[in-house]
Write a structure and sequence with these properties.
With 114 residues, this protein is mostly beta strands. It is built from no helices and eleven strands. Strands 2, 4, 5, 6, 9, 10 and 11 form a seven-stranded mixed sheet that branches. It is globular and about 40 Å long.
């Protein structure tokens, strides 16, 4: 079992920046990949960014050059740094971790005002 606790987000102006954090606990040694997904009203949940155990990073095309994903040395906390935010980035952002199962955080709202 893996537990994920997110923090960060909130209301940000267009062009602004914010950072999300996700702390994993439990069977963290089994985690193969951690990342962030987002879901806006009426849309499907989509991958934003992920980082594997070995450090391989995957970023959605829509956030390339604006968002970065990073983690701490213990590999138990991942960060999503979001720059140059746009109104279309408004969504609930979910932390995700994969072992033999998928685990999700509770979600944190990011609202980008125009």
């Amino acid at each position: 079992q893996v537990q994920l606790v997110e923090s960060g987000g909130g209301l940000v102006q267009t062009g602004g920046s914010t950072r999300l954090s996700c702390v994993a606990s439990g069977s963290v040694g089994l985690i193969e990949v951690m990342g962030w997904y987002r879901q806006s009203p009426g849309a499907q949940r989509e991958l934003v960014a992920s980082i594997t155990r070995r450090g391989s990073i995957n970023l959605a095309a829509s956030v390339l050059g604006r968002f970065t994903i990073s983690r701490d040395n213990l590999k138990t906390t991942v960060y999503l740094t979001m720059n140059s935010l746009k109104p279309e980035d408004t969504a609930v952002y979910y932390c995700h971790a994969a072992t033999y199962s998928d685990y999700w955080g509770q979600g944190t709202q990011v609202t980008v005002s125009s």
